[in-house]
Design goal:
The complex is a heterodimer of chains A (260) and B (377). Chain A is 41% helix and 21% strand. With 260 residues, chain A is an alpha/beta fold. Chain A folds into two domains: 111 residues, ATPase, nucleotide binding domain (Nucleotidyltransferase, domain 5), CATH 3.30.420.40; 143 residues, Nucleotidyltransferase, domain 5, CATH 3.30.420. Helix content of chain B is 52%, strand content 12%. The mean pLDDT of chain B is 92. The chains are: A alpha/beta (260), B alpha/beta (377).
Chain lengths: 260, 377
C-alpha cells in the first residue's frame, strides 16, 4: 500500500511517502506565503523521489498549520496526533514528545501504543521556537545552523531572563554591549528556552523516554539545555523535521486499511 | 426559527434589543456585570436589566484606568463605556465578585458611569445562617436604594417579576435537557447566543421565543444543524462568559459541541428556581445561595468540584474544556482543584486561556481538533 503524509508547517512543508510501511520518498520545502503551493511542492517532490504518480497513492493525510489549504484530496489530522504517531514509530517506547517547530512549541504525553494522552501547546507567543532562534541568531550574527555548536563552547552561559522574542532580543543586544561573548549569549538563550519549555511541559505527565522533534531539534545547544533541565536524555530522530509527516503517512495507511 | 434573527442581532450589536425597547417604551435600562445581580428586583421596577459582556476588540482607552493584568472583560467593557457606548443606560449595578469588578465599580462611577450607580456586596461565603441573613439584608437595602432612583416596587411587582424569571429558567433548563439527549438539534454557538440574549432583552419576549423554539425542536426529527455523519464529540465547558463565537464555530467544525457547562451565560445564569414566599427577597436570596456556584464564591472546599463532576457525568460529556479569560484569578485558582477531580475520574480536559479581541484562531483550531482526536483515541 502506498500512502503519503504532508505536514505544512509555518516555516517548512514536509512530505513522506510510505510503501508497505517503508519510507520510499520524502521532501522538505520552505512554506513561504502560500501554504497551498508549499504543500503541492512538497508532495510533488516526494512523489518524484518515490518514482510513482499521484494516482498511485491510496490515501493522504495532511497536517500542520496549512492542513486545511491544500489542492489534493486528503484527510486532516492535527500535528499533535501526527508527531505522537511518528515518534512512536521511530522510538517505540517514547512517552513524551517535545516538538519545537517554526512558530510553536508542544509537549505531548503518549501511552504505550503511541496515542496522545495529554498535550500542551504554547499560546500565541513564539518564544522558544524556530522563529525565536532565527531572531537571536541574527542579533548575534551567527548562522542559524551554527548556533547550536557555537553555544557548546560556552563556559559561562550569560543569563537571559526573558524569552519574549522582542524583550530577549534587546536583552541580547545589551549583553553584546556589555562585552559578553557570543557563545555565552547563545548558551544563555538555549537555557532560557529550556526553562520555558520545561515550565510548559510540567503540566502534563512526563515519562521516559523523551523524544524531540521539529526543526529546533537540529540545534544541539537546545537539545543539551533541555536534557540538563529535564535531567534526562532525549532521543533526536535523524530527521526530526519529518516526524510529523511520517506520523501523518502512518495514519493515512491505518485509515486506508480500515476502508479497504 | 423566529429566535434566529433576534440572536443574530445580538452578535452584531448586543445592545440593539435594549435600545429598541427603550425607544419603544420610554422605559429605563439598567446595566449589570454579573450573573449574581438581582435582576428580578430591577425588572420588578419596570426597568430592563441588560448584561454588560465586553467586546471582541483589543483594549484601548481603559489602559488609562486599568492595569494590563485585569481581564479583557473588565477592560473592553470600560472601553465601551468611555467611548459612550453605554450612554443609553440609566444606571449600572455592580455585584462584588472578584477584585477587578469591585475596583471597576469605582472607576466606572468616577469616569464612565451614566445615571445611577449601585453596589451589591454579596458575602464571599455562601453557606450558613449568618451569610444568608447578611445577603437578605443586602438585597433589601439594594431594593431600597434602587427604589429611590427608579420608583417604588411592591411585593406583588416582585412576585410577578420572579414568575417571569422562573419561567425563563425553566425554559432554558428544558432546552439544556433536550440538548443533552440530542445535542445535534442546536449548535453550541446558537445555544450561547440564546442564553446570552436572555440577559440582553425583555424577559417575557425571550420566554415567547424560547417557547416556540422548544416546540419546533421537539417536533423536529433528530437531524439538526450540527451536521456530519459522525457522532458529535460531547464536551462540557467551564469558564466565565462564553461569547467567543469564532471559538464555538471552530468547535463545531472540529466535530465537537458543548452538551452542558458551567459558564455564567450558561447554566450558572439560569440554574435554580425561586420559591415564591411571603417575602420575595427571601426567595431571591435563597436562590443566590443555592444555585450553581461561581468560583468567586464558596461554600465548602469540594462543593464546586463535586457539583461539576456530577454534571459532567449526567451530561455524558467525553471531555472538559476550561475556557478562561487571561488574568481571571478566581477561575485560575479553582482550575487546580477541578483539574485534579477530573483527572481522578479519568475525564480528559484542556485549558484554553484567551483575551477578548486578541485570539489566534488557527492555533485554537489545532488545539481543539487535537483534543477531540485525543478523546476519540
Amino acid at each position: 500500500m502506498r500512502v503519503a503524509g504532508v505536514d505544512i508547517g509555518s516555516l517548512t512543508a514536509k512530505a513522506v511517502m510510505l510503501e508497505d510501511g517503508e519510507i520510499i520518498g520524502k521532501s522538505l520545502v520552505m512554506t513561504g506565503h502560500n501554504s497551498r503551493l508549499a504543500g503541492r511542492r512538497a508532495l510533488d517532490l516526494a512523489l518524484k523521489e518515490a518514482g510513482f504518480p499521484e494516482d498511485a497513492i491510496q490515501n493522504i493525510v495532511a497536517t500542520g498549520y496549512g492542513r486545511l489549504s491544500i489542492d489534493f484530496p486528503a484527510e486532516q489530522v492535527t500535528e499533535i496526533t501526527c508527531h505522537a504517531r511518528g515518534a512512536h514509530k521511530i522510538v517505540p517506547d517514547a512517552h513524551t514528545v517535545i516538538d519545537l517547530g517554526g512558530q510553536d512549541s508542544k509537549a505531548i504525553a503518549l501511552d504505550d501504543s503511541g496515542r496522545v494522552v495529554d498535550f500542551v501547546m504554547n499560546d500565541k507567543c513564539a518564544a522558544g521556537t524556530g522563529r525565536f532562534l532565527e531572531v537571536m541568531a541574527h542579533a548575534l550574527e551567527i548562522g542559524i545552523e551554527n548556533l547550536g555548536e557555537a553555544s557548546l563552547q560556552s563556559e559561562e552561559p550569560a543569563p537571559i531572563s526573558s524569552v519574549c522574542t522582542v524583550f530577549a532580543e534587546s536583552e541580547v543586544i545589551s549583553r553584546i554591549a556589555e562585552g559578553v561573548s557570543k557563545v555565552d549569549i547563545a548558551a544563555g538563550i538555549h537555557q532560557a528556552i529550556a526553562s520555558r519549555i520545561y515550565a510548559m511541559a510540567a503540566r502534563i505527565p512526563l515519562k521516559e523516554r523523551f523524544v524531540m522533534t521539529g526543526g529546533v531539534a537540529k540545534n544541539i545547544g537546545v537539545v543539551k539545555a533541555l536534557e540538563s533541565k529535564f535531567k534526562t536524555s532525549f532521543v533526536v530522530p535523524p530527521e526530526p523535521q519529518h516526524v510529523g509527516a511520517l506520523g501523518a503517512a502512518i495514519i493515512a495507511a491505518e485509515r486506508a486499511s480500515v476502508k479497504s | 426559527m423566529e429566535i434566529d434573527s433576534k440572536i443574530h442581532e445580538i452578535k452584531d450589536d448586543p445592545y440593539k434589543p435594549a435600545k429598541e425597547w427603550k425607544e419603544r417604551t420610554w422605559g429605563k435600562v439598567v446595566g449589570y456585570f454579573c450573573s449574581y445581580a438581582p435582576e428580578e428586583i430591577i425588572y420588578a421596577s419596570g426597568a430592563l436589566p441588560v448584561r454588560i459582556i465586553g467586546r471582541n476588540k483589543a483594549a484601548t482607552l481603559s489602559g488609562a484606568h486599568l492595569q494590563n493584568y485585569c481581564c479583557s472583560l473588565a477592560r473592553t467593557s470600560l472601553d465601551m463605556a468611555l467611548e459612550g457606548d453605554f450612554d443609553f443606560l440609566d444606571g449600572t449595578v455592580f455585584v462584588h465578585t472578584c477584585d477587578t469588578m469591585q475596583r471597576l465599580s469605582d472607576i466606572w462611577r468616577l469616569n464612565a458611569g451614566a445615571g445611577a450607580h449601585f453596589d451589591v456586596v454579596l458575602p464571599t461565603f455562601l453557606g450558613g445562617k449568618n451569610a444568608y441573613e447578611y445577603l437578605r439584608s443586602e438585597l433589601s437595602s439594594f431594593k431600597k436604594s434602587f427604589e429611590n432612583e427608579f420608583g417604588k416596587i411592591s411585593d406583588d411587582d416582585l412576585r410577578r417579576s420572579i414568575d417571569v424569571y422562573n419561567r425563563n429558567r425553566q425554559l432554558l433548563e428544558e432546552l439544556y435537557s433536550l440538548r443533552i439527549d440530542r445535542p445535534e438539534v442546536l449548535s453550541s454557538e446558537k445555544l450561547y447566543m440564546i442564553v446570552t440574549s436572555s440577559s440582553l432583552m425583555e424577559k417575557n419576549e425571550h420566554n415567547k421565543l424560547l417557547e416556540s423554539l422548544l416546540s419546533e425542536l421537539k417536533a423536529s426529527s433528530s437531524s439538526g444543524d450540527s451536521g456530519g455523519g459522525k457522532s458529535v464529540a460531547r464536551i462540557f465547558g467551564i469558564g466565565s462568559v462564553m461569547e467567543e463565537w469564532d471559538f464555538l464555530r471552530i468547535l463545531k467544525e472540529a466535530g465537537g459541541t458543548f452538551v452542558d457547562d458551567d459558564f455564567c451565560n450558561g447554566r450558572r445564569y439560569f440554574d435554580g428556581l425561586i420559591q415564591q414566599t411571603d417575602d420575595p427577597i427571601e426567595g431571591i436570596a435563597r436562590r443566590i445561595s443555592e444555585r450553581a456556584i461561581c468560583p468567586c464564591k464558596h461554600t465548602n472546599t469540594y462543593a464546586r468540584a463535586d457539583d461539576i463532576l456530577e454534571r459532567v457525568m449526567d451530561s455524558r460529556a467525553e471531555g472538559v474544556i476550561f475556557f478562561q479569560f487571561k488574568f481571571c484569578e478566581p477561575h485560575a485558582f479553582d482550575y487546580v482543584a477541578l483539574k485534579e477531580a477530573l483527572d481522578k475520574a479519568s475525564i480528559p480536559s484542556m485549558l484554553i486561556e484567551i483575551e477578548q479581541g486578541s485570539v489566534s484562531l488557527e492555533q485554537l483550531r489545532t488545539r481543539i481538533e487535537a483534543f477531540i482526536e485525543t478523546i476519540r483515541g
